[in-house]
Input
Amino acid sequence: ETRTLTGVRLYVFAVIEHTTRRIRILGATAHRTFTVLDKTGTGTEGKPVLTDVQPVGGFDETVLLRLVAGAEADSEHPLAQAITAGVRDRGLRPLAATGFGSVTGKGVQATVAGHAVLVGTARLLGDVGIDTTALAPVAAALAAEGKTPVLAAVDGRPAGVLAVADTVKDDSAAAIAALQRLGVDVVMLTGDNARTAAAIAAQVGVGRVLAEVLPEPKADEIRRLQGEGRTVGMVGDGINDAPAPAADDDGLALGIGTDVAVVAADITLISGSLGGVVTAIRLSRATMRNIR
Ligand code: ADP
Ligand code: MG
Output
């Protein structure tokens, strides 16, 4: 019985230590802290929608959509789901695909109805020597509107650009302004292309953007920010996020949303909005003042 009691006591102390450590980090002195924001699902709703289809070189729009949807059918990426749903909503069925493969942070490839189809970033197409000059201005115009351009090539030739858009959450701009007043610098970290990220960042008032960062180098970017002598809090929805900094490195992971994926976070804000980060920091600072 005594042993059980000791165990319980140790557990309670561990929980308190765990919690105060997080509050201490979160309540850290102003101007030392960075909040790194995963663009999708935190600054934005995380519900991307297919908005545009622009074939090039006389490619048929319906065929393009069915080929692209076929290639994306087996991808779990939120962009792929937006594309396949958008194609179905237009009353079209994806063509059957074989040999599906995904290239992390870049896109997908598959053989669809006998055609070699590539769908993703300019880098994905460029990597296999496809000339993207015909697609670049179309993609740039869509990205300037804050949409994510998705480039498609069929049998080694550029076929068109699709665009997927995610709406900015209503209160994101106000929350980011409040964070900045608290002395917290906000940085956006995303795998999305630089123009799209810059357009979204401008809408929500984020000044520093690290875009086109592949999943692995995301962790390096976080370590680099920590190297600037800052405390880094990573805010994400846990879906396909960057590897978060650990509390042991004076970092914190803040999960936003009710999704199961946020269980990996140090602190979970179920409100699903960035305003929760502001509240958490204010509360932590007040708690630290009381402890002192
Ligand atoms: P993030 O989660 O920060 O948006 P990802 O690493 O998931 O970054 O993706 C980076 C980019 O790679 C996307 O913005 C998109 O352009 C491209 N991409 C990734 N997966 C796909 C896919 N299945 N279809 C089309 N494009 C994709
Ligand atoms: Mg992602």
